[in-house]
Amino acid sequence: MELIDYLPIFILLIIAVLFVGGTILVSHMVGRRKYGKEKMSPYESGMIPVGDARRRFSVKFYVVAILFVIFDIEVVFMYPWAVIFKKLGVFGFVEMMIFIAILLVGFIYIWKKGALEWA
């Protein structure tokens, strides 16, 4: 491959940078810079902040979030497999069944550990 083959990518990159820079510049020139008490106050979903922002949350929230991300990312690997399923044949099917079995063992483990229980 030669450098000329990358010319469309470079042109797109230049256009993107110019668009972003132009948008920021126009926004800076046109936008108001009027600061006041109301504008500088903290905003949280339209409600006045009440209480301490440093309260502790249960670890269960984080565990469920991490488990969701882990299983969600692993399921994403099934889409490319489904696209080329016929090309992979029996070997690809067996490999995916092993992958799903590992997922299932992990899911049963966290289920038995009580990681999905809220009570």
Straight-line distance between termini: 60 Å
Which percent band covers the strand fraction?
Answer: under 5%
**H/I helix tally:** 5
Task: Indicate the radius of gyration in whole angstroms.
Answer: 26 Å
Overall structural class, as computed from helix and strand content, comes to mainly alpha
CATH homologous superfamily (4th level) name of the largest domain: NADH:ubiquinone/plastoquinone oxidoreductase, chain 3
Mean pLDDT across every amino acid position: 86
Give the overall silhouette: flat
CATH class of the largest domain: Mainly Alpha
Using the 3D structure, state the CATH architecture of the largest domain: Up-down Bundle
Q: Write down how many β-strands occur, each being a DSSP E stretch of 2 or more residues.
A: 0
Low-confidence stretches: none
Sheet with the most strands, sense and barrel status: none
CATH fold call of the largest domain: Methane Monooxygenase Hydroxylase, Chain G, domain 1
Task: Describe the structure concisely.
By secondary structure, the chain is an all-alpha fold.
